[in-house]
Amino acid sequence: DHAKNFDLIESEYHMLSHYILSFPTFSDVSVKVLTLKTLEYVCTGLAGANSLMPLRVATEVFCSGCKFLLRVAASSKADCQNDPGGKGDYNDEDGDDEIAAAL
Length: 103
Known about the structure:
Layout: H1 2-13, H2 15-22, H3 29-45, H4 52-82, H5 96-102
Helix pairs in contact: 2-4, 4-5
C-alpha cells in the first residue's frame, strides 16, 4: 500500500524530487534528515516503488555540487598562481577559505 501511495504522490507532485532538488538550500537539519530518510526508505525498504526520478535528481544535485566545488577550487588555484607572493587581497594557497565560503 505504501508503494502505491508513494507512486501516486510522486507522480503527481514530485515531492521527494523537489525536496532533493532543494536539499542544498535547507538550513534546518531536521528537514535534511527527513529528506534523506525518505529517500533511503523509498530506495531500500519500499518494494515496488518507482524511485527513478528521485534518484536522477539526487545524482544531478550531487554532480552539480561537485562541478561547483571543482570550479571554485580551480579559480582559487588560478588566483594563487597569478599572485605567487601573496601580496594581493587573496592569500589562501589551498583554496579552503573560498570553498568553505561557497558552502
